[in-house]
Amino acid sequence: MTERTIIRLGPRHREAAIATLAAAFQSDPAVSWIIPNEAERARRLPRMFAWLWDDHQRHGIALGTPGCEAVTLWRLPGKVHHHDPLWPPEIMRLLGIFGRRILRASTVGDAIGAHLAKGEDWYYLRYAGVQPDCQGQGLGGLTIRAGLAEAAAAGKPALLETATESNVGIYLRLGFAVHEEWDVPAKGGPHFWSMSRPV
C-alpha cells in the first residue's frame, strides 16, 4: 500500500524521483514533440529529469510521497524566471540530454518563458508526475495540494503550464483557472494551457 503522506524530497530520493518523472512524462505531448522517437525519449528523459531535479534542489523544492510514487517540482517565489548561466559546461550537459533535439527543446523553453506570468511572487508548479502503475489513486492531487498549502500559508498564488488536455480538468478541480491557451510557434508545435490559482 502506497504511503499517502507528502514530504519534502531531498538527496536520498533523487534516483527514485527521477525514475518516476521520466516514466510519467514518456507520453507527454510537449516532450514527445521535442523527442519524437519513443525509444530515444525513454533513453533521454532520465537525463533530463536528473538535470531538472538538481535545478530544483538549488532553486525550488520537491514534494512527494516517501517512496516517490508521486513527485512535484516547484519553483519558489523569487526564482520563477531564473535560469542558470549557459556557461560551456552547462551547454555540454544540455547537448548530452537533448542531442540533436536541443533546438526543439529551446523552442519549447522559449515559448514557455514568453507566456509565463510576469513577476516572481508565485509558487510555480513546473512538473508533477505519478508512476504509471500508481495513477488513479489520487496521489497526484494529494501531492499538488501539499504545494498549494505551502503557497497559501505564504500568502502566494500559484501557476503552471500543461500540454496535456486531460490534466486541465484536474487542475481546475484544484482551484486553478485557465488564463491563456497558446501553441509553440513551430510546425506541429504542442498546444499549452497556462493556468493560475489565486491566493
Walkthrough of the structure:
The model has no long low-confidence stretch (mean pLDDT 96). Helices cover 44% and strands 20% of the residues. The radius of gyration is 16 Å and the shape is globular. With 199 residues, the protein is α+β, with helices and mostly antiparallel strands. It has a seven-stranded mixed β-sheet with strand order 1-2-3-4-5-7-6, sandwiched between helices. The protein has one domain: Aminopeptidase (3-Layer(aba) Sandwich), CATH 3.40.630.30. Helix 1 packs across helix 3 (38-59) and helix 3 runs antiparallel to helix 4.
Give the secondary structure arrangement, pairings included.
Elements (H helix, E strand, L loop, with lengths): L6 E2 L5 H11 L4 H6 L3 H22 E5 L5 E6 L12 H11 L3 H14 L7 E8 L8 H15 L4 E5 L2 H9 L3 E7 L7 E7 L2
Parallel strand pairs: 4-5
Antiparallel strand pairs: 1-2, 2-3, 3-4, 5-7, 6-7
Task: Offer a concise description of the structure.
The protein has one domain: Gcn5-related N-acetyltransferase (GNAT) (Aminopeptidase), CATH 3.40.630.30. The chain is 44% helix and 20% strand.
Q: Residue share in helices?
A: 40-55%
CATH architecture: 3-Layer(aba) Sandwich
Secondary-structure-based class equals alpha+beta
Mean pLDDT: 96
Largest sheet: 7 strands, mixed
Query: Hey, roughly how much beta strand do the residues contain?
Result: 15-25%
Radius of gyration: 16 Å
Give the low-confidence spans: none
Remind me, CATH topology?
Answer: Aminopeptidase
Distance between the termini: 34 Å
Helix and strand element order: EHHHEEHHEHEHEE
Provide the number of structural domains.
Answer: 1
**Treating each run of at least 4 consecutive H or I residues as one helix, how many helices?**
7
The best one-word shape is globular
How many strand segments? 7
Which strand order does the major sheet show?
Answer: 1-2-3-4-5-7-6
Q: Find the CATH superfamily.
A: Gcn5-related N-acetyltransferase (GNAT)
Query: CATH top level?
Result: Alpha Beta
